[in-house]
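Q: Structure tokens for this one, please.
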Amino acid sequence: MRLPHASLSWRPHIFLGAASRRMSMKAATFQARFAELVYLLAHEPDATPDHERVLSEAAAASAAGDTSLVTSQLNVVLLDEGHSAEGLRLHELVMRMSAHSAHQIDFLEAAPADQILGVARILAGEARPNDDGVAFDYELIKVGITHVEVHLGRNGFVRNGTLTPSASPRVNGSSRPTPSSVASIDGHRPTPRSGALTLGAEIPGSAIARRTTPPVGAPAIHDESIRMIEGAIKMKSLASTSDDELIEHLRTGVTPQNVMRVADEVATVAEARAGEGRWEVVARVFDGFVDREVSANDPELRRAFTIAIRRLTKPTLIRGIAGLLPRRPELRDPLHAVLLRLGPDGAEALIDLLTSSDSLTDRRAYLAALVKIRDAVPTLIHLLGDNRWYVVRNAIDLLGEMRAAESENALLDVVTHREERVRRSVATALARLGTARSIQAVEKMTTDVVPEVRVHAVQGLGTVKSSRAVAVLARALDHEADPEVQAVILAALGRQGTDEAVARLTKAAEPDGRLFKRKPTALRLAAVQALAEANTPAALAALRRLADDKERDIKVAAGRALRLPATGDGRRATGDG
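A: Here is the predicted structure, written as tokens:
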């Protein structure tokens, strides 16, 4: 099951100060053990001894008092946990709670082990998206909770039980949730039936919801209709806010006292705009969050914006804003900053778009963004094993642009790829890495059976300033029969500009001197142009001799090269003068 990224509860929570974030050892231990239990149930369902051990530890940790799992608080904890094994399990727990729309789970003191296990099994199972926790609540009823309270959905529904374990009702596997056992999403109260749970709030003119006492031992529902109505009014007001007002409020209307509320409201509107396909608004919200996170001097403000960014870090939303890159060039810089901040998640979205795009313009836009994200390297290395040659080539090009030294071994593995276009790219990428092993591999590629691959290998060697590269290029010239590859080798020697390179170019430019075997004029002309590129005293002396050559084309080319003005770096410009 692919779960969405962790998100905060819809209902605002009181902003947590530094002291309140320091949880007791008991609570932290329970959270860690419960997260491990869920992880084992989901990924190692047959590891029964481990299940029993971790369940025993979790039950022992909860014996001393109430323990709570709140997605917003867990998100704060995760900021400190990093990528430890415990942090990864907690992160998965948050994702699973969000997927099941269970934003807060409270285990009362001395919660029975079977109820802890029951809730963990529900979280480890498949989630039903966009049901506001109805499926999760149905499973809770089957567990028969008495020491657990769960906040479900976005509209204030709370499922809890009494402290009479023997009276806990259970529902058989064929039962279905009824209107009386599940709070309606729109806030309407169901008509009570005999023995059914009753919602007794008086909505008009009442500040406190009145509850009807449920049967002894039956799970109870807190009626939060007032909050539901207030939430609906608030959402309607937010929906009518203009996009400019929303962004301005984010930039100027945030204080340490209201930051959690404002961030939650803005994120909620951004999610609504995403549902409408208005990705430019979502991009502006992301940019606002990232900008405020960077500029915030108050660590509590910064932490709040980090949590807001985590809430919006979902594959659908990231792909939506990244998809703007080819179409909205004016948003390129802020989008690059946002995607860079999102790290691996931003890289994954860009790679998905890159590999699925048929447009060269779109691919270039995604490539330009990917080059800036170092977190893309592991994914790109993985893509070198893809069955699609063009995916492999794109990944190689990116790794070469990024000069990712950690990709050397993976690049060496595709040097003999069956597709010549992949081999061309890997020759260039390895030359950019510039390590001894990489250059050795490029040298071998100068003998590839495909001329275009040899061209890329030679061009790569031309960028490596070393006597060894000159020697390899000289040997390649001696054995090369393709005129185009010969011309590229000569140009590479000209860029080297060493005495050895100039001597080899001079030899190539001079007439053969043998009566029945003349050098091709094209080869000599390429050598003359390369001597002009070298622009050393020895190269200029060779050009002056060639200016009196008997062959008219060589004489003209040499004279033109000698009359070329010098460029800013002291070398002569090439071309027609």
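A few notes: The radius of gyration is 34 Å. The beta strands are 67-70, 102-107, 148-152, 157-160, 220-222.
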